[in-house]
Amino acid sequence: MKPVIERARDALAGMAAARPSPVAWDERGDGDIGTALRRAIDHELVQLRDPDPADGVAPADRARYVAELQEVYLELCELRLQRRVQAHDGVHEALERLRNIASPSALLERVTREICGSCGFERGVLSKIEGSDWILAAAHFEEHDDWAAEFVRFGSQARPTLSHSLLETQMARRRAPALVTDAPNNPHTHKPFVELGEVRCYVGAPIMPRGRVIGFLHADHHFSGRPVDELDRDALWAFAAGFAYVYERAVLLERLREQRDRIEKMTNSTATIVSDLCESDVGVERLDRDRALVRSRTAALATGGRESHLLLTPREIEVLSLMAAGSTNAVIARELFIAEGTVKSHVKRILRKLNASNRAEAVSRYLRSKIQDRHDATLPLAS
To answer: Reduced to 3 states, what is the DSSP secondary structure of residue 162?
Structure first.
């Protein structure tokens, strides 16, 4: 695109030298030059339609000049369209690659490289939001890994607050991307990051799974010195939108895997218990022995003995163990996959069986009994 931009600049410069012109432009990118070309063409067409005798430009010369401007403008538009298509394809391919990564942590490590590889950026930065803190999480600088690592270390320790004046705060509130053309002099940029990264201009986009902003992506063309433009902003915005869904999917899949593992453990434990019950002997002698055991444990309960916890069911022991760890009813319900009301019913039965007036007393009796059991288990065998 550089030759086209240079041709456009030469054409505009020639126009300014040949005659006074109200058209102004700067050198921030091809988008600004395209706008300037369009204005110059419109200006010359007005002069052709209603010529100014004081202008001194022959209509034939003006027509040739308009044709030259239009040729450059159309070529610039075509190249911009090619860039947009390439960016779209690059984003699509990058998201397909990221979608195959199942681990959320691995995704966060890979995403900045994909920003550079898919969208043509030379530096990419991923940051996250924790409360009101803005924390850098990962960065990729083409062929400058040490600089990227230093940038992340600084950003993870600095943890600037997302105040109302920061550009990133505005991005989060508006849920929209941003293009910064003069970062050192922009009052809304975070100057420590700008100075350490030697940032001149950049684009940023929020990461928003289900509409909630959880972080940001930033990118630029630092090493080549090419300014960022609207196409860069739009490409990063499309990438951030797709990445939000990819990341959310990975998090949900990880949670499903954890739940699956827990259910498998519970199923295996239940199968073992059922197998033991099915294989156990049943007879008058066994029933008599069970009755005697129940009577002994009931006596221990009546006296508050250390074996009173043996009257608890396996589920009640699980609940009591979590109570001993300081878990609330809500936490116990989540850990055991039962309703909170069921937990309350278990707690009431535990208090009744242990003859305890409150949770603390029940836990105390349970722990004392467990300690005594371990002590008895360590006693040497009688000779």
So the answer is: coil
| DSSP class of 61 | H
CB contact at 8 A, 128 and 137: yes
Q: How far apart are CA 307 and CA 364, in angstroms?
A: 13
pLDDT in tens, 282-299: 444 555 555 555 455 445
Give me the helices (H) in 304-339, please: 314-324, 329-336
Q: Rounded distance, CA 83 to CA 4, Å? A: 14
For the stretch 366-377, pLDDT in tens is 887 776 655 444
Query: Model's pTM, two decimal places?
Result: 0.58
Beta-carbon contacts of residue 128 (< 8 Å; ≥ 6 apart): 135, 137, 214, 215
> 288-377 — its CATH code?
1.10.10.10
Please provide the CATH number assigned to the domain covering 101-252: 3.30.450.40
Give the residue extent of every domain in the chain: 2-86, 101-252, 288-377
Classified as helix, coil or strand, 383 is coil
Here the tokens at position 7 are: 């041709």
> Using CA atoms, how far apart are residues 24 and 32, in angstroms rounded to an integer?
9
* Sheet of strand 123-130: strand arrangement: 133-141, 123-130, 215-220, 202-207, 178-180
